Amino acid sequence: MTGALLAVATAAAGARKWWGGAAFGYQHPTVAALVEPASALRAAAWQSATLGGLLLATVIVTIGVAQFIESGTWGALRLYEHRTYVLYGRRLCAALGFLAVVQVVNGLTLWIVMRGMAVLRPTPALPPNAFDAGSASGVLDAGSADWGEALTAMGGALLGQALYLSVGWCAAAFLRNSIGTLALGAGPWLVTAPLLLLPIGPFLPHAWISNLMALPGEAQYSFYFWVQVSPQPSPGVSAALVAVCTVAFALLAQLLLRSERVLRPID
Q1: How far apart are CA 137 and CA 216, in angstroms?
Q2: How many CA atoms does the CB half-sphere of 6 hold within 13 Å?
Q3: What is the mean pLDDT of residues 221-246?
Q4: From its phi and psi, is residue 138 left (phi > 0), alpha (psi between -120 and 50) or beta?
Q5: In 3-state terms, what secondary structure has residue 215?
Q6: Burial of 221 (0-12, 13-18, 19+ CB in 10 A)
Q7: Cα(254)–Cα(44) distance, rounded to whole angstroms?
């Protein structure tokens, strides 16, 4: 249900952007490119790496882990499989597989909607030289995408969502209740987002994810959550930082989950 709402919200935002451009008489190159399937898939990956993906990952953790712990099901599972990393790995792979499917469905829905908008309100795109090439928004690099760029963005989004999942699992293992997991899984990301505007911004995970995904500034205001993040020179470094944080939170979650069991050694 949450994945369907994400697809509808993304398609609605794209349609609104197209309608606004049609009223102006020209489409922004980033919006005009969404009539191509690869560009639509890349836009869906951008959405999955930021606010929409964060909320979806937090809901998955709440349903798949927090409720299990709260009801005692996780402890019962450990009677049959005592290796916590196996249980954790299975659920992480299942969650990432589901999130990958959501990205594809989201991109397909966005492409169909934007093709329909192009038929209903045909509008030419602004030429690339209409924008300042020296701006920090990277708009000239955010036009049409090929399939390689789309698949790279999709992989980056899954890496970012793996970090969201790991943080959520830590919250679930620490608090052991659903409401607290929702709050602690997504809350810190939302509360600390304004810090991106301060000098500390480049050192926040939000900036690493934004740099990894090469989010265009113009599109962020309607499609995404991390806004006004200046691109950094090395996306590879950002990917490595996100991966290290993901592994660190995954290890912490396993340590916390190991203490959750039905039978204690004394039993």
Answers
A1: 5
A2: 29
A3: 71
A4: left
A5: coil
A6: exposed
A7: 30
- Angstrom distance (rounded) from CA 166 to CA 139: 32
Distance CA 39, CA 143 (A): 8
**The pLDDT value given to residue 265:** 47
Residue 31 host element (H or E): helix 29-32
| DSSP SS3 for 27 | strand
List the end-to-end C-alpha distance of the chain, in Å, as a whole number. Answer: 41
Tens-place pLDDT, residues 137-191: 333 345 677 888 889 989 999 999 999 988 888 888 888 788 888 888 888 888 8
Q: Cβ–Cβ contacts within 10 Å for residue 71, how many?
A: 11
CA within 13 Å, CB half, 104 = 7
Question: The whole model's pTM is what?
Answer: 0.81
DSSP per position, 83-140: -HHHHHHHHHHHHHHHHHHHHHHHHHHHHHHHHHHHHHS--PBPPGGGS-TTSTT-GG
Mean pLDDT, the chain, rounded, equals 76
> In angstroms, what CA-CA distances link 207 with 76, 152, 160, 200?
40, 18, 11, 10
Q: Are 61 and 167 in contact (CB under 8 A)?
A: no
In the chain, the largest separation of any two C-alpha atoms, in whole Å, equals 74
